[in-house]
Amino acid sequence: METNKKTSFNDNFSDFLNEYNDQSGKKEWIGNKLGIIDKQLDDLGKADDEVKDAINVTRDVLSNDALDPSQKVIISIKGINDFITKQDPDPKDIMMTNALRTIISTYIDIARYTSDEVIAREVVNLGNNLYK
Amino acid sequence: MDTKLIILCYSLTFLLGFLWGLSELLSRYREIKLILYSRNALLYLFINGMASVLVYYFIPKLNISFGVFTQNEWGKIILAGLSAMFILRSSFFSYHDKDSNKAINVGISTILQVFLDSAERSFDREHSTNKLKQVSLVMKDIDFTKAEKNLSVICLNLMLNVSTEEQKKLGESVKNLSQDMDPLAKSIALGIILEQVTGVELLKQAVECLGLSIKITPEKIDVFQQLGQLEKNLK
Questions:
Q1: N or C, which end of chain A is more exposed by having fewer CB within 10 Å?
Q2: Alpha-carbon span A62 to B211, nearest angstrom
Q3: What pLDDT, on a 0 to 100 scale, did the predictor assign at position B50?
Q4: What is the helix (H) or strand (E) element at residue B105, kind and residue range?
Q5: Is the pTM above the cut of 0.90?
């Protein structure tokens, strides 16, 4: 009796793990957010030519299917951080500042969603770089 | 019928109605101790019991007939005890006025339902407040990313009578938690989901067993606080 109960429990338990381990929804969610960031990068179009490379590198990262969504997040944040350092946006340039704020807000959503400390730290650095 | 027998019949009917209500509350809240110590839950059970007594009283008065059930006292007790609200809601509970030749619906079920809903809602609020306090205390230092799988697996492994459906539902609920919520809110929500299966005590034991492996580090708390501050600056 006990054995039967345990066997059926183990069968049931694997259902829970399968349900839990289905990470496709999470990856899709992050992928959608990265798609939004890709579009938001258009608003940085008025950047100086010499720093546009940083945006292009970031775009390449976002469209690289070989990378895991979490890797894409971290590398693309570094790309945008690099862009902010090189561009040093003028706080009076409302359009660029707003575009960067929107991008950072999207990254905050991702950091919260993943609860990933590394991503959160990178986003904080990005924000500190913008408001330095 | 003898007065003592009448009192016994009414008492048994009340008890059956009370137990029927208790089974309804238990199926939803799963903790008998909490139900029996709550004034609102007891009011709910009392109303259920009284509804049964009311139906038992009205069965002969309104000539309600349910075949063999209404042919003897035991049948009437079982019928009134277990299906009071159904009978009160059904078309059987309408009074046929001979003078006007019209069927008049007696609205007792509507009134009782209002009291039942109100008592249950009050109990639900009381129950939720207690649970939130207890679960928050257990989960306040827990890192959601570390606990979401480990704690769920430990809790489910400990419970032997969790059905496939419940596990599937639990898996989906945990998966759906990964929204852009605050990490602490997610940890508490995870605790609330698991507590529905394990109860607070077992959840607490499981958290203590896993110890540091699922605890949030001060660095992580700090970085998410900075993230919250950054979000405020962006607005």
A1: N
A2: 38
A3: 92
A4: strand B102-105
A5: no
Distance CA B81, CA B75 (A): 10
Q: Taking 60 as the threshold, does the pLDDT of residue B177 lie above it?
A: yes
Token pair recorded at residue B45: 């059970």
**Smallest Cα distance from B39 to chain A, Å:** 37
User: Are B11 and B80 in contact, with CB atoms under 8 Å apart?
Assistant: no
Per-residue exposure over A86-101, b if at least 16 CB sit within 10 Å of its own CB, e if not = ebebeeeeeebeebbb
Beta-carbon contacts of B142 under 8 Å, excluding residues fewer than 6 positions away, are B151, B187, B190, B191, B207, B214, B215, B216
B172 to chain A nearest CA, in Å? 6
Which single residue is written with the structure tokens 């183990």?
Answer: A10
- Which residue does chain B place closest to A6, by CA atoms? B160
SS3 B160: coil
State yes or no: ipTM above 0.85. Answer: no
pLDDT tens for B216-225 read 888 888 898 8
Beta carbons of A70 and A119 less than 8 angstroms apart: yes
The total of other beta-carbon atoms located within 10 Å of residue B192's CB is 19
Contact indicator for B35, B25 with CB cutoff of 8 Å: yes
Record the tokens describing residue B93, joined without a space. 């509970």
In terms of CA atoms, which chain B residue is nearest residue A33? B180
User: What is the nearest CA distance from A121 to chain B, expressed in angstroms?
Assistant: 6
> Could you tell me the pLDDT band of residue A107, with boundaries at 50, 70 and 90?
very high
Hey, what amino acid is at B173?
A: S
Per-residue pLDDT of A73-106, as tens digits, reads 999 999 889 888 888 888 788 888 888 999 999 9
Tokens coding A57 = 């590198």
- The answer to whether residues B66 and B91 touch, using CB atoms and an 8 Å cutoff, is no
Chain A residue with minimum CA distance to B226: A124
Domain residue ranges of chain B, discontinuous segments joined by +: 3-119, 140-219
Higher pLDDT among residues B66 and A4, named by residue? B66
Distance of CA B161 to the CA centre of its chain: 19
Report which DSSP code applies to B179: S
- Which residues are CB-neighbours of B185 under 8 A, at least 6 positions away? none
